[in-house]
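#lab-general

N.A. 3:47 PM
ok so I finally got the sequence cleaned up, no stray characters, all 83 residues accounted for. can someone with queue access submit it? mine expired

B.Y. 3:52 PM
send it over

N.A. 3:53 PM
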Amino acid sequence: MTIKFHPHALERIKERGTNKDEIISTIKGGEEFSAKFGRTGYRRNFPFKTMWKGKRYNTKQVEAYTVKENKDWIVVTVIVKYF
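B.Y. 4:20 PM
back already:
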């Protein structure tokens, strides 16, 4: 399986505080769930224990939304939650 990134997802990665390695780890080892528009979502929690936008958080949850194209997974967007 090859994981590719849509330009929209690359922009969201930068602004939401994650990186490609975390996204790939989320897809390969996270919880899989069905999402809107026939997409597949993946969710994974990471220890964080640092500051994000002026507030300290212990956990970062990464969600990657993908579509299957031939044998590839295309990451179309990324959501990051801090708690």
